[in-house]
Design brief:
The complex is a heterodimer of chains A (297) and B (389). Chain A is of the alpha/beta class. Chain A has helices at 19-31, 57-64, 75-87, 102-115, 157-169, 190-199, 216-227, 261-270, 279-289; strands at 11-14, 35-39, 47-48, 51-54, 68-71, 92-95, 120-122, 128-131, 135-138, 147-154, 174-179, 205-211, 232-237, 274-276. Chain A folds into 2 domains: 11-122, NAD(P)-binding Rossmann-like Domain (Rossmann fold); 141-289, Rossmann fold (3-Layer(aba) Sandwich). In chain B, strands 7, 8, 9, 10, 11 and 12 form a 6-stranded antiparallel beta sheet that branches. A 4-stranded antiparallel beta sheet of chain B has the order 1-6-2-3, with helices on one face. The model of chain B has no long low-confidence stretch (mean pLDDT 93). The chains are: A alpha/beta (297), B alpha+beta (389).
Amino acid sequence: MSVLVDETTRLCVAGITGREGSFHTLNNRNYGTNVVGGVTPGKGGQDVEGIPVFNSWAEAAAEVQPNTAMIFVPPRFAADAILEAAAAGVELIVAITEGIPAHDELRAYNTLKRDHPNARLVGPNCPGILSPGKANVGIIPASFFERGNIGVVSRSGTLTYQIGNEIARAGFGCSSIVGIGGDPVPGSSFVDILELFEADEETELIVLSGEIGGSAEEEAAEHIAEHISKPVVAYIAGFTAPPGKQMGHAGAIVSGSSGTAAAKAQALEAKGVRVGRTPTEAAAIAVEVLGGASVGA
Amino acid sequence: MDLLEYQGKQLFARHGLKVSQGKAVTTVDDALLAADEVGYPIVVKAQVLIGGRGKAGGVKLANNEAEAREHAGNILGMDIKGHIVRTLWIEHASDIASEYYASVLLDRSAKQPLVMFSTEGGVDIEEVAEKTPEKLIRHHVDALAGLSSEEAAQIAREGGADDDVIDGVADALVALYEVWLQEDATLAEINPLIVTPEREVKALDSKVSLDGNALYRHEENQGLSDKENEDPLERRAKEEGVQFVKLDGDIGILGNGAGLVMSTLDVVSQAGGSPANFLDAGGGSNAETIKQAVDLILANEKVKAVLVNIFAGITRCDLVAEGLVAAFAEIKPTVPFVVRLDGTNDVEGRRILQEANLPNVYAAATMNEAAEKVVALAAGKDVPAEAAA
């Protein structure tokens, strides 16, 4: 097993005809993901290397029955694309787009909750989801990950690759890697993904990679103490980030005294979660817990 | 993007929130003209993006021209915690019966707008929240429905606003919510929200943060913020579209991906070093963006060594290497570089660097090793000379 994406995934891509959109869609297909279509208004009837393009999500849903949407459209169109995919009945929506206005995210999140409670949004501003050996939806470079039993959930893309690669070098693999994204209003939180990994038989250990800003890590700590029986290893980035400065991600900002890396690490450790001081150490702890050789920091 | 007080007040006025008549000026002469226009007594207020300006002497009451001249002269050019005062806001002094507090912000945890109100205004609100939390009303608004007048009046009543200004406070809250919503703000705060002896409800101060990602649909807000007090390097980075934050140390950092760069800063600090900047060259960065990034990092004269930490996903290490070679040819850096290339096309990238045989470039196999090397180099220590990458 794995979470969210696997052999049953039927992927349809908003923005498939764009440069980035087509490149990554084809990458996903080359990996073995079942890509059934794409949506670009006004380009219905065309195809991208054999992948049919539709004018709307309703049309795509009727013709090729996608169960997963990937959003690759520019920021100003992204919220509407998310809602349109949900309205067409797509259950999983993975939004890669970076730079969506926070108010649009707020509107999309709350509209989904009210009108499409069965739809799950992952992202925006995320690298997507990879279930090694099964399916890749997004921009995660699959070659750095092996198939295995570590579930990874992260707010950052490159940091995930760093940790996943160190796990792979130690001879271990991942059930799924889920990027929840670095924006202020993520569609799925750490808690949502922790629940999925808890229920997934293949996942034996969970690596959580957080960063400064907001309180998602603190909420995850509470949830882990109450509901997660599997071991969780964490890493938090941004100990040296000055307050009031946005560190790349829109959501990565220490506001006043809240959202610091130290507070997050403390909250997790207080609930018994081991927190690595570096990505390397986090990977080493994960490997050690699973019975591999302790690599050291 | 944080706005100065007067800029925030302009947005307030645009949405019907009452503010005192005033003028932003940059010279003493203009301050006096503005004072005549709004009428004495006036308040001279330093416009800086930092709290505590009152305590620092940046807000003064003036009853006549002599006082106005003295205060404006003293405050212009004042250094308030590193922020130089270049603009003054001159407004007619208000009579104050009560000082309240009001704000609207995006509650990331609840994923809803949060309206806060208190009758304990004019003081640090974090202190009120901590010491007398019952005096701070926190009310979540349905993001899809917005804030109604009835709901706002309920908040005002619950917070203990005087009976005769419930409607005035409710109007102010609704207007503040509109500022937050219509202007794509992440925070809109009034402290204090005053009640005058004539029972008028007015915003005496403003604190507004706008969402940079939404500026494309607010042309009129694009020139705002405190441009003059912006760090020149940060301003240049913004113009070039590079994610850059200036820090206090002497080790330049170039990486890809916000999380990995934040992590790199941490690892360098753990190794005993002090980063000079955050710089995320972004996913898919090419030779040109790398060259630009090196140029930006080296424009900071404090930089004694540079760490390039790339874990390439969409990015390609060969393009990063080509960018470094091009940057070296053009900029001819005099400080040492430590380069760690991993991920997509890393073998090719390392080969390009090796063949270019760049002076003063050290290779590192891992992030931790790279951090240790760059910290040693910045401290002027010898590091085993090694062929580039």
